[in-house]
């Protein structure tokens, strides 16, 4: 896997230098991989307990992203997935220690415990007051190891927030340590990976997953989970993770909690939002009171796809500490959520009132046949669009087909009514460019037919040409630009010309279809001048345009 790095041996240092270059609130120690608050006076006295956390790099934004007033004062950072050395941790302690002492927040991994622990002993020998709290929030290991040996993972971020607020309030070292320790005891996390990450020094994934598999209960160092499962839906996944947490902690309906939906580095915000939706729904179904929730990347494992869910049991004091302001750049904010999803009714235009009247069976049969053809063509259209665009045309056409099938009988009561109804359905069902193009064309064609009670072939030909012209006006394309117009415009022209020449409608439509086929095939040799495909230039050559191909699909059905 390719990575945007210079030297695998310098990844951690260059990352820290990049953070210090771009975040004015951070300063970097010259000879150690330690980031600290830039507003700390060198050698000056501190009026608060100093907080230090850290660990291997590769977990960004942890831990440097949580440095700032109200959270951490320093982070000691090791190489990728490797604990910082004793000297690095000791340098962090010396850099921020003041009269009120230092609290170390340690994730429960052997290397972290050893190096942070020895550094604490050395600091105490120098007369620095140091205490430590170990976070072991991973419930995946509940059947494998005793609670004290569980891993520390994303729930550690919530402990940072609680301890940071307690320290900012002026509490002494014992009080801050107690607050952090109680939070660590009341937070639980479970994660799932949909694939492995690649450590820069090795250049290969840490494990292999077959298609349709997921690793349940993994940590944050690229390791495999406790068991491999078939990839579940987001809703089923959330139920599995949350039920494991609730079973482990014995939390009952009425328990107040905060929820942290954490991405592992390779999961887009879209999917994390879907997970958050499912997690909130499941927790409310189980009777828990979710008072705060956050979704995003908090403690990652490089580019691993997957997520973890953390729950923190709340009381009034912990909730108050979560709500305290912080200047840490990676903390996302208050996390307040509505008691339920807020919905507003969509106002409908009078022009969109449902049509009335009996259906014309011929119109409906033709539209349903086109819908069926677009359904069947989904794999082809997806493949063509993926080669030159974003790959969503196939599923967009399927959504359009479903919308056509869902139209009521009265939508087919007259040609102009049917065209408007289909246009409205496609506008609502298909995002991107296809929905507006087809909707505009159908609305323009409907205007041509609204004063014609029983349109003949020439009326339909005029409506066809009007619709094609509307697409050209809306998008600014012309024939030769490699768009749907390269199929539709020749077809409309050929149909009209054949009718004018006296050919019967069936023969005229065959001429239209032949023109559309030639036009669609010709797009394979065209450089795109509009749309997303235009960014690819000559790389699109050899592949016909997906939009023209989709038009050809339904044109062929109408010919039958």
Automatic annotation (TrEMBL):
Residue intervals of the DhaL domain: 361-560
SMART domains: Dak2
Molecular function as annotated in GO: kinase activity
Pfam families to which the protein is assigned, alphabetical: Dak1, Dak2
Keywords: ATP-binding, Kinase, Nucleotide-binding, Transferase
InterPro entries in the record: DhaK_dom (IPR004006), DhaL_dom (IPR004007), DhaL_dom_sf (IPR036117), Dihydroxyacetone_Kinase (IPR050861)
Annotated protein name in UniProt: Dihydroxyacetone kinase family protein
